[in-house]
Amino acid sequence: MISANDLSPAELAALLHFHADAGVEWLLEEEAIDRFAEFEAMKAARRPAAQAQPQAPIAGEGPVARDGRTPPRPNGVARPAPAERAASGPQPAIPDGEAVQQARFVAESARSLSELKTAIEAFNGCNLKHSARSTIFASGDAESGIMVIGSAPGAEDDREGVPFSGKSGQLFDKMLAAIGLTRSSVLLTQVIPWRPPGNRAPSAAEMDICRPFIERQIALAEPKVILLLGNFSARFFFGENDTIHGLRGRWKEITAADCVIPAIASLHPQDLLTAPVNKRLAWNDLLAFQAKLKSLSLLRN
């Protein structure tokens, strides 16, 4: 096994980036520890001691006879309820339902995008925040009337603190340039503000908690048109379970607060890096998006 001391700074940095991309969040030990073997050894050590000792009465149950049975109680005397055992595994600090209510209150209280950004950064009701490095919030021109919404932050987004970073971000920049746009001329954001560990799909509870934040971003920015990138974001807003290939290229409407906004979905840049053959589909979607911008006089020549 190669020790970290034998690696050059460049090799060590590359190794750390590899682990981060793979979803590794913490480095705990230099050598692997067999926790299963430890647990079995612990059970084996405890078993003789447990067999040698008589069973102790449960607190509140009263005296125990020599044969181990609890004597009957007088009529009319109720047996006290046994103490509740602690639930196994870590419990969330805030129940999901309460966290959703708090998220709604926090989102509705914000009167500007800057206030909303501060509120989201201070919000601790979603477990995704505790494993993420950055809180990804809207960036770009909030006055442009054009909003682009991705799915959830990836590893590069989490490291850089901005949406659409890394190789997929470079391709995204080229996609915008092809229809006369730049990052600075649109408002970019993600459905989920924190990267799920290992880039897994957000759970239903996590989506419910984060929904008030993205809907409030839309309501405060008041875009005239929205481009959704990726399968997750299309399903999230359209409320359908079809794949991105079934949802892309068709204009639908998104409702945020009292605003009804036309939106079109397309493939995420990461999808195009994985399957470049789909670039022609994305190009057709971008042309439809460009035509809509021109019809709304939003495209600056």
Q: How much beta, percentage-wise?
A: 5-15%
Give the SSE string: HHHHHEEHHEHEHHEEHH
Specify the oligomeric state: single chain
Q: Mind telling me the CATH superfamily name of the domain at 96-295? A: Uracil-DNA glycosylase-like domain
Q: What distance lies between the first and last C-alpha atoms, to the nearest angstrom?
A: 58 Å
Number of strands: 6
- The coarse overall form would be globular
Structural class: alpha/beta
Enumerate how many helices there are, as a single number.
Answer: 12
Q: Could you estimate the helical fraction of the residues in percent?
A: 40-55%
What summary fits the major beta sheet? 6 strands, mixed
Q: Give the CATH class of the domain at 96-295.
A: Alpha Beta
What's the CATH architecture name of the domain at 96-295? 3-Layer(aba) Sandwich
Q: Report Rg.
A: 27 Å
GO biological process, one term: DNA repair
Domain Uracil-DNA glycosylase-like: 137-287
GO molecular function: 4 iron, 4 sulfur cluster binding; metal ion binding; uracil DNA N-glycosylase activity
Catalytic activity: Hydrolyzes single-stranded DNA or mismatched double-stranded DNA and polynucleotides, releasing free uracil
